[in-house]
Amino acid sequence: MNFFDAQQQAKASTSRLIIVFILGVGGFAASISMLILSIDHYLLTGKFIPKHFEEALFIRSFISVIFIVGMASFFQYFMLKDGGKVVALSLGGRLITALSQEKSHQVLLNVVEEMSIASGISPPSVYLLSDSGINAFAAGFTYNDAVIGVTQGALDQLNREELQGVIAHEFSHIFNGDMRINLHLSGMVYGIVFIGAVGRFIVDALHDSHLDRYVSRSSDTKKGGNPIVALYLLGLGLMVLGWIGTFIGEWIKAMISRQREYLADASAVQYTRYPQGIANALIKIGASSEGASIRSSAGGTYAHLFFADGITNFWDHFFSTHPKLQDRIRRIDPSWNGKFVLKETKSPIRSKSTSNVSESEFIPSSAASVLTSPIVIDTLSRIAQQPGNQNLKYARTRIDALPDSLHTMCANALSAQWIILTLLLSTENITLLKQEKYLKNISPMLYKNITSTYTKMLDLPRGAHLDLINLSIPSLKMMSEQQYRVFRQTVIDLIEMDQVVSIWEWSLHAIVLTPLDREFGLSKAPRERYRKIEEIQEPLSVLFSLLIQTQFGNEKRINESIEALRTALILPTLSYHSDVSLSSLSKAIDQIQCASTAIRTMVLEQAIHLLGSDGTHFDDDIEMIHALGSLLLIPLSSLDIPK
User: Is 436 assigned a catalytic role?
Assistant: First the structure.
């Protein structure tokens, strides 16, 4: 399977279908407007076909219908503004944490952690559904507010590689913004349903009040048509057009959803480099008596979010949000024999210490060598195709290399704070003394715990710091709002203690506080406003000026870099600023955040390229890249280990 071609094919199909869907909504609004024109003409003349086109009335009606559909979409967005956890809780999900003693829970969390570390993001919260069917879902507008849900049936029946394929599929939905697409499409269909419901209400109200008896007595006198007839026909017309619009809208929405499933399958293969994992998971669904069933009454509402169809009904052939299992399996594994046969029983759950032993084709390096090795980061579009899921294995090796005591601390909201605060302790004695005094004043116990944490982290390679941060963020989201405000202020105070903000401090501030601020409602996700890169030319000048200063000191190299970036970004001009302040950088980032995903991805790619212009990404380069990825909401979807 060529997963890059499959992804491009699915994306192209999605784009075409979305255009068709939008045209369909426009056609629906035009039909309603023509109905209103006819009813208006009938009331005035007693005839339904107007001789003259009332342009003003048509436009007003058209805009009104679009407004109603838009409001319905906004309503759907508002209902889920708190992120994926709303979906998880409405499905009856139970949050599981690293403190769980269940081995199957630990395996699931390990798989999610591996995928997160490999993608350069913090692990999303994980919820368990009690259903015995094999299924999973991902929900969230961005990876900062996303959650992963998995059924008990999936944990019971899938082995580690199959579970890895399923989780990779769900990560793809998060990275591709599928929930946002489905939400807007569902909102528009909901608006069409609402208009149809208004029509039905009018017809029912006339019927219940017995006014419809006057319908047969309609006349086309010179004074115009019968108002009761007009109202009845308006209601009937809205009801019929609403029904037709809903049917077509749901059908196109289902086709779009199916294309996103193909895209997620192809992406899962790319992430894991192990097609058989996700293929076997789909085969097991087909072979299981429970299939992918979801019992929750909210299952139908969120059917498009699941790994496989959890709800079945008579209209599946037309409105199924997922392709047939057979089609999905054959796209992944063309050699499949078409039989849903359980090829194997679930593999034994591996403990942390033995999780790599059976991977004979991959020999991990020792903990120290892995964590201190230079890392080369590349983007998905450039990564070389390699056999095996080495990126995930590398991520697993990095996690396994962390000391158990620190890994456990990441799982607790309180001790995770100590890790973050410890990482902000200065290496300069004067500043360190100020920080120690400040922490003692807050709480002697806090100072004691941070001192203890510092001792544990003393010999830890710098390359592991980012992993500790990413693993701590899910636990930090479990703080109360009051606890977070105190923690946030402590982070800022420690950073500002020496009146200077280092690159590391800026990076940590961005990686930790950006998702937490949104979790606790202190900031909102940026709205897309810039579709042309020229609109953010000056903010890009500020950002790249800072990045260039971290790499080059001589004027020739600076000018060459600016020109190379200007050409790569296809900008008319790109200026160099020698005096970038933290406030100007923050302002620039705020504007770049509002650019389209394609522009932000291009910016991050050029930043990665610039920071690795000497052939290697060093620790501070990696930290800046992670910070930029967090700020621009672009996951670093792949880490590649140098040969």
Answer: no
